[in-house]
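Quick review question:
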C-alpha cells in the first residue's frame, strides 16, 4: 500500500472546496518512486500494527525572548543532552544564551504582507512509544534534522520520563527541536501536511535502520478517523478536567442536535471518500500479492481491510452521548412513574 498520494486541485497551487480534502492513491504501487518491495514491506508493517512515528509542531515563538525561554526549557538550562545543527554539545545557561544571540532573530521578518505576526522559530517534537531506546531515537532525529533543515539553525534536546522538565512527564522518550524560522538566505520554513509526511517517512526509516520497528502511514491508511487531541488538551483530560476548546465543541454539537442539523458534513463526505480509496488500494495490493504467490500476506491484508473500524467523528460521538443521556433520563422517568400507585400514575 503506497503512502504516496496526488492532491486533487482545480488550479495550480490551490486546492478549493471539498476537493482540498480528497486524496487519491496512485493507480499502481511504486508509481512515485516506491518500488513493489517497499510497498510490501509497508504492508507488512501496517497489518502488524507496528508503532507509528509521531511528529508534532507545537507552534513557535513570535517573540525573541520567548525563543530563549523555550531553549532553556527543553535543555533544562543546558543540563540535558542538547546539540545544534553542527552536532556540537551545548551545556550550561551561558552557552544557550550565546547560541540564542547568534541566531540574530531581530534580523528576521516580524510580519507578513498582510500584517500578520510571523513565528521567529518553530517547535517540533519527534516521539515514539515508551521503552523505545532513547539514544537511538536521538540519533535518528539528528539525521532527519541534518537532511531536512539544511542551511538552518536549530537545537535539539532529548527528553525521557526521568529528565523531562514538565510537572507531568509523558512515559515515552521524545526529542524537542527548535528551528529558526528563516535560513541563512532569508527563506522561511513552511510546514504543510506534505512536509510532515516526508518528515515522518524519513524519521521511520532512520529508526528502522537502527533496529527499531517504526511505520509512517496516514490515519486514513490505518483506518483511524478520529483525530488525536493536542498535548495541552491531553494533559487537561489526564487531570480529569475539560478544556475550553472541548467544551465549545460539545456545545456546538449539542446546538446542532437541537436544531436537527444531523446531515453529513463536507468533512465526513471527504472522510468516506478517503476510506473508499484506501479499500480500493488494499484490494489492488491483495490482487498483486496473489498474482506473485504471496498468499499469506494477501490474506493478512484482506483481514486488515475487513477489520477497519467504522468511520466516526468527534461531533457524532458527542451527539450519540447526548442522545443516550436523554434516553436514559426518559427511561428513569418512566420507571419512576410505573412505581406510582395507579391513581397517581393517571395524573402524570
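Suggested answer, residue by residue:
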Amino acid at each position: 500500500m503506497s503512502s504516496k498520494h496526488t492532491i486533487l486541485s482545480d488550479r495550480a497551487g490551490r486546492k478549493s472546496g471539498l476537493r482540498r480534502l480528497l486524496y487519491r492513491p496512485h493507480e499502481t504501487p511504486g508509481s512515485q518512486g516506491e518500488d513493489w518491495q517497499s510497498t510490501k514491506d509497508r504492508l507488512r508493517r501496517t497489518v502488524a500494527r507496528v508503532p507509528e512515528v509521531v511528529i508534532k509542531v507545537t507552534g513557535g515563538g513570535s517573540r525573541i525572548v520567548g525563543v530563549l525561554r523555550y531553549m532553556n526549557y527543553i535543555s533544562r538550562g543546558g543540563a540535558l543532552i542538547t546539540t545544534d545543527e553542527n552536532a556540537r554539545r551545548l551545556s550550561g545557561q551561558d552557552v544557550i544564551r550565546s547560541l540564542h544571540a547568534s541566531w540574530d532573530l531581530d534580523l528576521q521578518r516580524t510580519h507578513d504582507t498582510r500584517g500578520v505576526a510571523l513565528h521567529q522559530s518553530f517547535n517540533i517534537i519527534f516521539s515514539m512509544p515508551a521503552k523505545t531506546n532513547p539514544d537511538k531515537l536521538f540519533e535518528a532525529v539528528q539525521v532527519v534534522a541534518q537532511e531536512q533543515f539544511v542551511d538552518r539553525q536549530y537545537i535539539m534536546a532529548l527528553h525521557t520520563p526521568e529528565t523531562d522538565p514538565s510537572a507531568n512527564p509523558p512515559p515515552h522518550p521524545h526529542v524537542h527541536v527548535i528551528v529558526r524560522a528563516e535560513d541563512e538566505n532569508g527563506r522561511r520554513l513552511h510546514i504543510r501536511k506534505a512536509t510532515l509526511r516526508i518528515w515522518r517517512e524519513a524519521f521511520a526509516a532512520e529508526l528502522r535502520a537502527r533496529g527499531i520497528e517504526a511505520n509512517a502511514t496516514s490515519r486514513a491508511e490505518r483506518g483511524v478517523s478520529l483525530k488525536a487531541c493536542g498535548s495541552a488538551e491531553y494533559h487537561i483530560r489526564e487531570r480529569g478536567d475539560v478544556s475550553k476548546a472541548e467544551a465549545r465543541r460539545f456545545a456546538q454539537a449539542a446546538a446542532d442536535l437541537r436544531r436537527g442539523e444531523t446531515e453529513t458534513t463536507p468533512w465526513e463526505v471527504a472522510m468516506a471518500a478517503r476510506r473508499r480509496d484506501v479499500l480500493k488500494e488494499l484490494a489492488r495490493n491483495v490482487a498483486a500479492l496473489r498474482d506473485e504467490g504471496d498468499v499469506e500476506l494477501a490474506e493478512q491484508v484482506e483481514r486488515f481491510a475487513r477489520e477497519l473500524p467504522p468511520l466516526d467523528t468527534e461531533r457524532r460521538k458527542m451527539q450519540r452521548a447526548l442522545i443516550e443521556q436523554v434516553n436514559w433520563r426518559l427511561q428513569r422517568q418512566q420507571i419512576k412513574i410505573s412505581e406510582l400507585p395507579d391513581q397517581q400514575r393517571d395524573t402524570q
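Why it works: The chain has two domains: 1-50+221-231+242-348, 52-214. Residues 52-214 form a domain with the BirA Bifunctional Protein; domain 2 fold (CATH 3.30.930.30).
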